[in-house]
Amino acid sequence: xxxxxxxxxxxxxxxxxxxxxxxxxxxxxxxxxxxxxxxxxxxxxxxxxxxxxxxxxxxxxxxxxxxxxxxxxxxxxxxxxxxxxxxxxxxxxxxxxxxxxxxxxxxxxxxxxxxxxxxxxxxxxxxxxxxxxxxxx
Length: 137
Ligand code: CMP
Fold this sequence. Notes:
The chain is of the alpha+beta class. The protein has helices spanning 10-14, 18-28, 42-48, 58-65, 80-88, 101-105, 120-131, and strands at residues 2-8, 31-38, 70-77, 114-116. Strands 2-3-1-4 form a 4-stranded antiparallel beta sheet, sandwiched between helices. The longest helix has 12 residues, at 120-131. It is globular, with a radius of gyration of 14 Å. The chain starts with a strand and ends in a 6-residue tail after the last helix. Residues 52, 57, 61, 91, 109-110, 112, 115 line the site of adenosine-3',5'-cyclic-monophosphate.
């Protein structure tokens, strides 16, 4: 049993996709243990995307994630990180398998609807960044 951090990005929130995204996770069998609608400030944006510092798309990424409310969630279950990533699909929606969230709802790598942690370590770091250290199962 483990847990992962998933976030509906500003484009997904603006397009009213929170419900359909949550339904996919629920139908898979993962369990929602925390969620909130919030705005991301620059400090949190840079902390969340620290591994992308210096990449050509970094500034665009930070501006985009601060451009509107996001919906942050914690999902729990067997192989939560891996299962969430298979529901989400590859980063570039053009390369994502049909039936994945990014393939079904997105066209562009910058506006790809949803973020999911890429490892157990990232998940714990991201959960702490968004929900605080005191959030425990
Ligand atoms: P995400 O899973 O949130 O993690 C980093 C994000 O950078 C990624 O999704 C993409 O939305 C965004 N991004 C923007 N441009 C690129 C790019 N050229 N290559 C990879 N990721 C990109």
